[in-house]
C-alpha cells in the first residue's frame, strides 16, 4: 500500500497524543524529518483538494528549495506564514472567496509531527500559489465561461515569483503587487468594501414599491451610492442623479425602472462589483500609452492618450443574440468606402429570405454575388451597412469599428442593435486620430470618401483597441456608474461562483 509507513507513523503519533504511549517519546519533529515527508507527500499521484496542475506546481516549488519547508522550521519562515495567513483571511476585500485559500487542520492529531508539518506546509503553499494566480490573472475557469473572450495571455510564474519572494524576504511586497493597480480596480475595491459593510448592517431597509415610498427611507437609500444626496435641494434632483448613474431615463420620477434599480440588494450589487473586478484581472497589467476603450454595456467609446481622454463617442454594439465579444486587437488600417463582405450567417438568415420575397432586393441595396460562389457583397455607397469608414482590426471574431448610414440610432438610449461589430458615431475623428494622432487627417479622409472609391490607409503604428464589459465603473468626477447586464455576463459569472463547490484546502 502506498505510503503505508508514513500512515503508520501518523497513527503512532495519534496514540502518543491520546496518551496510549508515554509522552516522553513524542519528540519534536526535526526539519530533516519534515523535509523527507514533504518529498513523500508530493510523491503521491494525487492530493485531496489539489488539482493536477496545482500538484505539478507544488512539486516544482519544492524542488527549487530541496523540499525544505516554506512556512515552518525557522523564525523567518513562521513570520512569513503569519503574513500569508493574514492576507488570505482578507481575500474577500479583493472580491475573492477566502474559503478557497483556507487550511483546516486535521482533526484528531494533538501533537505536532513531521508528517502533519509536511502536509500543512505543502497545502499552505498551494493556498499561496492559488491566491497569487487568482488575484494576478483572474480565475481561468471563469474566463472560460464564455467562448468570446480573448484578452492577451499573462506571463506570470507564480511558483518562481513566490519562491523568490521567500528567498529574498519580500513576501509582503510580493503579495501587495498581485492586484491590478488600475484606478478603476482600486475604486471598485473601495466600493465593494462599502457594500460589504452595508451587508453586515442588514442591507437596505425594506423595498420600494408604488404603494410604499417613505421619503426619508428613499433619501437614505439614494445617499448610499451618492454622498451629495444629503445636500440635495429635493428628492427629484437626487432621483435624477440616481437615474443618470444607472443608465436610466433621467426623469426625476420614481417610476418602475427606478424602483427596480433601487431594489437591487446590497448583496447583488457586491456580487456585480466582484464580477467587474474579476474581468479587470483579465486585462493586461499595463495599458499602452494610447488606446481605444469600448465599453459595451455603456455603448460608449473613449480614446485615451497618456492617461487623458482625448475623444469620446456613443457607439452601437451587438444585439443580445449577436453579442460583441470581449477582446483586445490592434487597428492596423483605415478603409474608406469599404465594401461589406456579408457573413454567411447574416446572408442566410436575413438577406436570402428577403431576396425570395423580393427578387429585386439585391439591386435595391447595391448587393452582388461574389465570384466563385464566395458569398454576397454590398458595394460601397450610401446604403452600405459599414458606412463610409472602417477601422480594420484583425481578430478571430471578425469584429471591427465602422461608420453606419443609420446615424439616428445613436440618439437611442438602448444601443445594442448591431450584428456584433461596433458602429461609431464619431468615426471620422476616430479614424483621423488613428492615422496621425490628431484631427489633421480629417480633410484627407473626407476627400477620399468623396471619390466613392475604396482606399486603404495603413497606420504608421498599430492602435490598440479594447472591447470590454464594465457594468460598474467610476466616471471622471468620482461617481459610481451602473449599466444593464445586456449579455448576462455578470449573471453567468455570479451563478458560476455560487454553484461551484468550495476549493477549500484541508488537512
List keywords for this structure.
alpha/beta; disordered N terminus; globular; 3-stranded antiparallel beta sheet; 507 residues; 8-stranded mixed beta barrel
Shape: globular
Low-pLDDT segments, ≥5 res: 1-28, 107-111
Binned, the helix content reads 40-55%
Q: How many strand units? A: 17
Distance between the termini: 20 Å
Q: Let me know the average pLDDT.
A: 88
From the alpha carbons, calculate the radius of gyration and give it in angstroms: 29 Å
Protein architecture, described:
The chain has 507 residues and is α/β, with parallel strands linked by helices. It has 18 helices and 17 strands. It has helices at residues 4-18, 31-42, 52-64, 75-89, 114-137, 140-143, 158-167, 171-176, 183-200, 215-225, 235-245, 256-262, 266-281, 344-357, 361-364, 427-436, 442-451, 489-499; strands spanning 103-104, 149-150, 290-295, 300-305, 308-318, 326-336, 340-341, 367-369, 376-378, 389-392, 401-402, 416-418, 422-424, 455-468, 472-474, 480-482, 505-506. The strands form four sheets. The chain has an eight-stranded mixed barrel with strand order 3-4-5-13-11-10-6-14. Strands 7-9-8 form a three-stranded antiparallel β-sheet. Strands 1-17 form a two-stranded parallel ribbon. α3 (52-64) packs across α5 (114-137), α10 crosses α11 (235-245) and α13 (266-281) packs across α18. The two termini are 20 Å apart. The model is unreliable at 1-28 and 107-111 (pLDDT under 50).
Summary?
This protein is α/β, with parallel strands linked by helices and 507 residues long. Helix content is 42%, strand content 16%.
Amino acid at each position: 500500500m502506498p505510503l503505508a509507513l508514513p500512515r503508520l507513523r501518523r497513527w503512532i503519533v495519534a496514540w502518543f497524543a491520546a496518551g496510549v504511549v508515554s509522552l516522553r517519546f513524542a519528540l519534536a519533529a526535526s526539519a530533516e524529518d519534515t523535509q523527507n515527508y514533504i518529498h513523500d507527500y508530493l510523491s503521491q499521484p494525487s492530493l485531496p483538494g489539489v488539482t493536477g496542475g496545482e500538484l505539478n506546481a507544488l512539486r516544482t516549488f519544492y524542488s527549487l528549495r530541496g523540499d525544505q519547508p516554506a512556512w515552518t522550521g525557522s523564525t523567518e519562515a513562521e513570520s512569513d506564514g503569519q503574513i500569508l495567513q493574514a492576507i488570505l483571511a482578507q481575500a474577500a476585500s479583493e472580491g475573492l472567496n477566502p474559503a478557497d485559500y483556507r487550511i483546516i487542520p486535521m482533526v484528531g492529531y494533538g501533537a505536532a509531527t513531521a508528517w502533519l508539518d509536511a502536509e500543512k506546509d505543502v497545502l499552505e503553499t498551494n493556498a499561496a500559489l492559488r491566491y497569487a494566480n487568482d488575484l494576478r490573472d483572474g480565475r481561468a475557469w471563469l474566463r472560460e465561461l464564455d467562448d468570446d473572450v480573448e484578452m492577451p495571455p499573462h506571463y506570470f510564474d507564480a511558483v518562481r515569483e513566490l519562491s523568490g519572494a521567500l528567498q529574498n524576504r519580500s513576501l509582503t511586497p510580493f503579495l501587495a503587487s498581485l492586484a491590478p493597480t488600475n484606478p478603476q480596480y482600486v475604486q471598485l475595491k473601495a466600493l465593494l468594501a462599502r457594500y460589504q459593510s452595508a451587508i453586515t448592517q442588514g442591507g437596505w431597509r425594506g423595498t420600494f414599491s408604488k404603494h410604499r415610498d417613505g421619503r426619508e427611507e428613499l433619501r437614505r437609500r439614494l445617499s448610499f451610492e451618492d454622498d451629495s444626496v444629503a445636500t440635495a435641494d429635493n428628492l427629484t434632483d437626487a432621483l435624477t442623479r440616481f437615474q443618470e448613474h444607472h443608465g436610466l431615463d433621467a426623469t426625476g420620477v420614481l417610476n418602475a425602472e427606478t424602483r427596480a434599480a433601487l431594489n437591487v440588494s446590497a448583496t447583488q450589487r457586491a456580487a456585480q462589483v466582484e464580477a467587474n473586478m474579476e474581468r479587470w484581472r483579465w486585462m493586461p497589467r499595463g495599458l499602452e500609452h494610447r488606446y481605444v476603450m469600448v465599453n459595451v454595456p455603456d455603448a460608449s467609446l473613449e480614446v485615451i492618450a497618456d492617461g487623458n481622454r482625448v475623444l469620446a463617442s456613443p457607439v452601437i454594439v451587438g444585439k443580445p443574440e449577436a453579442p460583441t465579444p470581449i477582446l483586445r486587437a490592434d487597428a492596423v488600417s483605415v478603409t474608406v468606402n469599404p465594401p461589406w463582405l456579408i457573413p454567411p450567417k447574416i446572408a442566410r438568415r436575413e438577406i436570402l429570405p428577403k431576396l425570395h420575397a423580393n427578387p429585386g432586393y439585391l439591386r435595391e441595396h447595391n448587393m452582388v454575388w461574389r465570384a466563385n460562389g464566395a458569398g454576397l457583397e454590398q458595394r460601397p455607397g450610401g446604403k452600405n451597412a459599414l458606412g463610409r469608414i472602417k477601422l480594420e482590426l484583425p481578430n478571430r471574431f471578425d469584429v471591427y469599428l465602422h461608420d453606419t448610414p443609420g446615424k439616428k440610432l445613436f440618439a437611442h438610449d438602448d444601443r445594442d442593435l448591431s450584428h456584433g461589430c461596433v458602429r461609431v458615431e464619431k468615426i471620422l475623428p476616430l479614424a483621423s486620430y488613428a492615422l496621425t494622432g490628431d484631427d489633421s487627417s480629417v480633410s484627407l479622409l473626407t476627400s477620399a470618401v468623396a471619390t466613392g472609391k475604396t482606399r486603404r490607409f495603413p497606420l504608421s503604428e498599430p492602435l490598440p483597441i479594447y472591447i470590454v464589459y464594465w457594468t460598474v465603473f467610476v466616471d471622471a468626477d468620482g461617481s459610481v456608474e451602473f449599466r444593464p447586464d445586456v449579455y448576462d455576463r455578470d449573471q453567468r459569472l455570479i451563478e458560476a461562483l455560487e454553484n461551484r463547490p468550495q476549493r477549500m484546502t484541508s488537512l
